[in-house]
């Protein structure tokens, strides 16, 4: 696609980023959760998975879904610098989404974590994968994190013993900023980070052709 000079001037210069290597996790049910990074051209499909939850008030799905929608649209339209998105799929169906971006070479910024299939701790697995991406694969030193729900605060701030950094302002606002440092990650990743690589070709193919959820019955307040 030919891009005119005005459009080109609106697009941020992108930093080369190592891709997240796909992995799989065998869940308690025996199902296999595949976590992989999406490409920019896949964003419209992911937006369709997010859209039905933008009016669900329970557990703050409305604000989280609305913000993820906006962030991913910004990524798709080249209006956010150095953003990425990881998805989790089971049997090809999208069951969770996480995203974030690079602030600079040493600092990462966590945006959101959203579970579309509850009860299997998929959100926790995806959050850990996101931290793995920043701290192990991109070799950053710390990740800035905020929470927009009590569940998020318990899962991230308390369980990871995050360092309070109120003098640093996170793009999302919310509660004062907390930080996962490399030291804290090394302390907790043994109990938080799971998964195996490589993903077998047949299993990876199901994840590379993601399917929209047919319903969100596990999410309280969702009606269709």
Descriptive labels:
globular; 8 strands; Aminopeptidase; alpha+beta; single chain; 224 residues
Brief sketch in words of this structure:
This protein is an alpha+beta fold and 224 residues long.
Principal-axis shape: globular
Count of DSSP strands: 8
| Stretches with pLDDT under 50, minimum 5 residues | none
| Distance separating the two termini | 38 Å
The helix count comes to 7
Instruction: Report Rg.
Output: 17 Å
Q: Assign the CATH superfamily.
A: Gcn5-related N-acetyltransferase (GNAT)
Q: What proportion of the residues is helical, as a percent range?
A: 25-40%
**CATH top level label:** Alpha Beta
Order of helices and strands: HEEHHEEEHEHEEHH
In total, the number of domains comes to 1
Q: How does the major sheet shape up?
A: 8 strands, mixed
Q: What is the CATH architecture term?
A: 3-Layer(aba) Sandwich
- Strands in their spatial order, largest beta sheet: 1-2-3-4-5-6-8-7
CATH topology description: Aminopeptidase
Approximately how much beta-strand content do the residues carry? 15-25%
Mean pLDDT: 95
- The quaternary state of the protein chains shown equals single chain
Task: Please tell me about this protein's structure.
The protein is an alpha+beta fold. The protein has one domain (5-12, 19-208): Aminopeptidase. The chain is 33% helix and 21% strand. It has seven helices and eight strands. It has helices spanning 5-10, 43-50, 61-76, 122-137, 150-158, 182-192, 201-208; strands at residues 23-26, 32-37, 83-90, 93-102, 107-115, 142-145, 163-164, 178-181. It has an eight-stranded mixed beta sheet, sandwiched between helices. The longest helix is centred in the N-terminal third of the chain and has 16 residues, at 61-76. The relative contact order is 0.18.
């Amino acid at each position: 696609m030919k891009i005119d000079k005005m459009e080109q001037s609106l697009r941020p210069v992108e930093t080369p980023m190592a891709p997240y290597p796909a992995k799989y996790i065998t869940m308690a049910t025996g199902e296999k959760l595949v976590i992989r990074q999406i490409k920019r051209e896949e964003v419209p499909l992911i937006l369709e998975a997010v859209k039905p939850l933008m009016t669900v008030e329970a557990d703050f799905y409305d604000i989280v879904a609305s913000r993820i929608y906006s962030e991913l649209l910004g990524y798709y339209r080249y209006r956010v610098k150095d953003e990425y998105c990881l998805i989790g799929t089971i049997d090809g169906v999208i069951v969770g989404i996480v995203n974030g971006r690079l602030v600079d070479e040493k600092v990462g910024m966590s945006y959101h974590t959203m579970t579309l299939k509850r009860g299997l701790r998929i959100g926790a697995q995806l959050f850990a994968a996101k931290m793995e991406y920043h701290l192990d694969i991109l070799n950053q030193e710390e990740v800035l994190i905020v929470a927009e729900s009590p569940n998020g605060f318990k899962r991230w701030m308390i369980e990871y013993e995050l360092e309070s950094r109120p003098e640093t302002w996170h793009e999302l606002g919310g509660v004062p900023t907390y930080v996962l440092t490399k030291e804290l990650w090394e302390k907790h990743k043994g109990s938080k980070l799971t998964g195996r690589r490589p993903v077998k070709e047949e299993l990876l193919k199901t994840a590379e052709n993601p399917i929209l959820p047919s319903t969100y019955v596990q999410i309280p307040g969702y009606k269709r």
